[in-house]
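Person: I have long wanted to understand how a fold can be written as tokens. Underneath my words sits a plain record pairing an amino acid chain with its backbone structure tokens. Those tokens are not coordinates but codes from a learned vocabulary of shapes. I should like you to check that the lines agree and flag anything odd. The protein I mean follows directly.
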Amino acid sequence: MSLITLFLLAVALGTDAMSLCIGLGMSGVKRRQIWLLTISITIFHILMPIIGYYIGELVGSYVDRAAAIVGALILLYLGARMIKNGLTGKGEDDQKQLLTNAGGVMVLSGSVSMDALSVGFTLGTQDVNLIQAALVMGVVAGAMTYIGLNFGRYVGSKLGEKAQIIGGIILIGIGIKLFL
């Protein structure tokens, strides 16, 4: 697998994280939360292909589906809360609190990294340097996460409470996609 192909694969894998982070960023995240989620998603996107490479497709299909359901439920909850808060003009603390909770960050990072786990299953059939591939996927996903959170934060600051409604719709859309 060429480096260009690997980079394009990493960009494709990072789009989920970027979409999620635009929605979260619209709710108004702090710099510390941006770095925490960026680092967490980077690490997950490095580890998941390696884990997928070694555990194989059989075990992975059960882990993949369970994590996707948990992640989808959290995103649906967050999206609904953001829309409600955007319509009523009340607190933004729920979403921010999830990003300060280590468990919440781990679940969000894991849910957007499941596709990297699936890719790890197929890396064994390709002529690829596993560590190099995992590092490229992690760095690209981390960069896309950082950009998504900052872009969402910028848009959120310009749109105010309407941004929460839009961000909520984005999160619900991603949550529904995880269910399918």
In short: Residues 33 and 101 are 10 Å apart (CA to CA). The chain is about 90% helix and 0% strand.
